[in-house]
Design a protein that fits this description.
There is one protein chain. By secondary structure, the protein is an alpha/beta fold. It is about 35% helix and about 25% strand. The strands form two sheets. The protein has a six-stranded mixed beta sheet, with helices on both faces. A four-stranded antiparallel beta sheet has the order 2-1-4-5, covered by helices on one side.
Length: about 250
């Protein structure tokens, strides 16, 4: 069974400037995520441990210094145009900052309509509105409270859930969520995390949940990988999640 996305002994170094040594951001990590087994995998660690570097590598936003990122068995950096388009359809992202991802001059409709237009997922305006409304309801938002508003008219939690809805529009196989609740109020974290859990349980979407919070990782995930100073130092699994053969998993 070929994984949807796979990291094979991936490492990343950032060059130092002005005579400084390079910085190791990620060291020899292997990970496989299968589309046929949707799950939530949490990647936890302190700041600077390599969590966001891993996310950027899996999203194709950075290239590894060593090893390979593979999409359906093919090296990500060697994908042709059609392969890259399929990858962008199957793998979506939800980033940390629910403020910085919006253009304040556009209504929030803009971030929802853009993927529909680029991937030609709706044949008419009426169909686009229906698809958007269904995605918003799936993350606990009422369309009439969101559509037509500017970003500053929504709360931080609403803005973040709109971004989850945006990812859901494409019906991806994997969402990489990089600290999706770190910048929202504690009272809203459970709602957003519940939306992510629902995407896996009801829509069959795997989530790579990146966080520094072990409590929320344990709450929503099927497996936890712990990074420390660029290295994978511990991993735990339950609910039948199966890691890459190169990932060390304790027996307990």
């Amino acid at each position: 069974m070929v994984p949807l996305i796979e990291a094979v002994n991936v490492s990343k170094r950032f060059a130092g400037g002005l005579g400084r040594e390079s910085t190791l951001a990620l060291a020899g990590l292997s990970l496989a995520i299968h589309a046929e087994k949707p799950s939530i995998i949490a990647v936890v660690g302190e700041s600077g441990s390599g969590k966001t570097t891993l996310a950027r590598l899996l999203l194709g936003l950075a290239e590894p210094s060593g090893g390979e990122i593979r999409y359906r068995g093919n090296d990500l950096k060697r994908l042709d145009r059609d392969g890259r388009r399929a990858f962008r359809h199957d793998v979506q992202a939800v980033f940390q900052d629910p403020y910085g991802v919006y253009n304040p001059f556009y209504r929030v409709d803009h971030v929802l309509k853009t993927p529909l237009r680029r991937f030609r997922l709706a044949g008419s305006r009426a169909e686009a509105r229906q698809v958007i409304s269904e995605a918003l309801r799936a993350v606990g938002l009422q369309p009439e409270e969101v559509i037509g508003r500017f970003p500053h008219q929504l709360s931080g939690g609403q803005r973040q859930r709109v971004m989850v809805a945006r990812a859901l529009l494409l019906e991806p196989k994997l969402i990489v969520a990089d600290e999706p609740v770190s910048m929202v109020d504690a009272s809203l974290r459970a709602t957003i995390l519940g939306s992510l859990r629902k995407l896996t349980d009801e829509h069959g979407i795997s989530i790579l949940y990146i966080t520094h919070d072990l409590a929320t990782a344990y709450q929503v995930s099927d497996a936890i990988l712990v990074l420390y100073r660029a290295h994978l130092v511990e991993a735990a699994r339950w609910n039948g999640w199966s890691p890459h053969p190169g990932t060390p998993i304790p027996n307990s």
